[in-house]
Amino acid sequence: MDMHIAPAPLVSSKALRLTLFGFLMAALFMATLDNQIVSTALPTIVGEFGQMERFGWIGSSYLLATCAVMPLYGKLGDLFGRKYVMIAAVAIFTLGSIACGLATSMNTLIAARVFQGLGGGGIMVSIFSINADLFEPRERARYQSYSSLMLMASGAIGPVLGGTMSDLFGWRSIFLINIPIGAIVLGGLFVFLPYRRPTRQPKIDYAGALLLAGAVTSLVLLADGPELFGSLLSPGSLSVIAFGLASAIAWVLVERRAPEPIVPLSLFANPSFSLFLVISLASGAIGIGMVNYFALFLQTTTGLSPSSAGLLFIMLTGGIVCGSLSAGRLISMTGRYKPFAIASASMAVIAMLLFTQVHPGTPIVLIALAMGFHGIGIGLGQQVPITGVQNMVSRGDVGAATGAITLARMGGASIAISLYGATIAAGLASQGGVIAGVENIENLTPAMLSALPAPVQQAVAESYTAAFHPLFLTATCIAAVALLAAVLLKSVRLPSAKG
Questions:
Q1: Is the pLDDT of residue 437 over 90?
Q2: Which of 39, 308, 382, 409 is the most exposed place for a label (fewest CB within 10 A)?
Q3: 137-175 pLDDT, tens per residue?
Q4: What does the alpha-carbon distance between residue 440 and residue 422 come to, in Å, rounded to a whole number?
């Protein structure tokens, strides 16, 4: 535990703190919205640029870049102060958005998404670290719940907003909308966020950042293995495994000797830190990684249009809102977070098992209730890992620890997106049956599906239901691992707010 006295809050005026928090939330919404907003616009983009095989990389490249730079930003904030690091991240993200909106081919769009992710990762880490500077531990739990809520709400709103905007204004508008938001956030942070000079001399562990990025990238590529390399035993897959292992081993060796490690290995001395990492990985896989697949599942098995399927996400978002706000207030009141981690993981296991029972013909009301239940579960556990870790480390390591936890969540999402995609592709391929009137089931857009005769629509729905079954079972296993980690957490009480 951190024994030294906490410094005075970064901002003494409550009104100014709330104003700053508003700018931070706008930045977080903008950065996380871009994880999901492309999902419903992807068929339109592929229609313009072709190259269907690169489809997944428009999302994965952004998440990968985001993950790769997260630990570095956490450290930069600790060393140079959060203000200018946050401003740099928002500026890079906004420039990346302009590049995405002006992309002329699939390759330039993917490259622009990588650049955009380099800023997005910094925004996410810096926001949680600035919150730790602005608010006391118990008060922080409540505001952290608003941050986590924004993270998940943007994920649920993204598919609806992306589809609507690309229909009305063309797909480029989903990126160009970030320009005015980015400009407002930059102005607000520049004027209102005080600069607190850190007390330490900066020494940046570039080697550690690079090796960690290599290890995370290898994991994501490996989860995408069947699509990229054919099998896990192919030369391509084996070379990725070798590179990932070498990066991971070299990272541990570098971190042990680095004066300012990206993730101080001393954090792992507390078993709770490793448990929080596991819970974060699982929450990313189930809370963020599933969103695109819910959209696909609803459109292919129930025949709903993108906008109608999007409306069901209101149940998911509503559940997340209720769960997150309730947990934030209750953690503030009781100072305990372990019960919420257990409840969240238990509900995720039940929700994923419920989805294995959904089939063509299941009433939409029942699906909506399952989505709401799943949302409440996600919301209850959203802020537990960050609140717990920030309470457990010394103030000097808050940025690095927050970065590691946020990296685990986004890493869990990007690995899961690849893993789920491979599971569905394998599920569709294993059926092997050709559906009359359908050339390639994977290339069916919702509009094309709705134009098919009813018996063909039914056959497509049954094929997808069978392919999604192993995906939901995989997600159930991930949730079960999170539940075990939550049960093993120490029961800790957060310190009361002072004064």
A1: no
A2: 308
A3: 667 667 766 776 676 667 667 777 777 777 778 778 888
A4: 17
- Percentage of the chain lying above the pLDDT 90 cut: 10
Residue 467's CB is within 10 A of a number of other CB atoms, namely 24
Report which of 220, 245, 222 is spatially closest to residue 234, judged by C-alpha positions. Answer: 222
What local confidence, expressed as pLDDT, does residue 225 receive? 59
- Which pTM value belongs to this model? 0.73
CB atoms within 10 A of CB 237: 19
Q: How many domains does the chain have?
A: 2
**Is residue 79 located within the same domain as residue 182?**
yes
Residue 11 burial (CB count, 10 A): 19
Is the distance from CB of 163 to CB of 40 less than 8 angstroms?
yes
- pLDDT range class, residue 348, cuts 50, 70, 90: very high
My answer on whether 102 and 245 are in the same domain is no
Write the CB contacts of 413 (distance below 8 Å, at least 6 apart in sequence): 35, 63, 284, 285, 287, 288, 289
**Is 355 inside a domain boundary?**
yes
| Residue 425 Rama label (left phi>0; alpha psi -120 to 50; beta) | alpha
Number of separate helices (H) and strands (E) present in the chain: 20, 0
Is 231 strand, coil or helix? Answer: coil
> In terms of C-beta density within 10 A (0-12 exposed, 13-18 middle, 19 or more buried), how is residue 299 classed?
buried
213 falls in which pLDDT band (50, 70, 90)? confident
Q: Which residue has the higher pLDDT, 428 or 118?
A: 118
Instruction: Give the structural domain span for 55.
Output: 14-205+259-431+441-488
pLDDT of residue 1: 42
Distance in angstroms (rounded) separating the CA atoms of residues 55 and 297:
17
Instruction: Give the CATH number for residue 350.
Output: 1.20.1250.20
Which two structure tokens, joined as six digits, stand for 418? 């690849």
Q: What local confidence, expressed as pLDDT, does residue 327 receive?
A: 81
- The rounded distance, in Å, linking the Cα atoms of 185 and 176 is 15
**First-residue to last-residue Cα distance in the chain:** 20
335 in the Ramachandran plot: left (φ > 0), alpha (ψ -120 to 50) or beta?
Answer: left
Radius of gyration of the chain (CA): 22
Question: Are 61 and 110 a contacting pair, CB within 8 Å?
Answer: yes
Burial of 455 (0-12, 13-18, 19+ CB in 10 A): exposed
Q: Do 223 and 167 reside in the same domain of the chain?
A: no
Between the alpha carbon of residue 151 and those of residues 84, 144, 223, the distances in Å are: 22, 10, 24
Residues 6+ apart with CB under 8 A from 78: 129, 198, 200, 396, 397, 398, 399, 400
Q: Which has the minimum average pLDDT: 245-254, 347-356, 458-467, 481-490? A: 458-467
Mapping DSSP onto H, E and C, the string for 342-411 reads: HHHHHHHHHHHHHHCCCCCCCCHHHHHHHHHHHHHHHHHHCCHHHHHHHHHCCHHHHHHHHHHHHHHHHH
234 and 189, same domain (yes or no): no
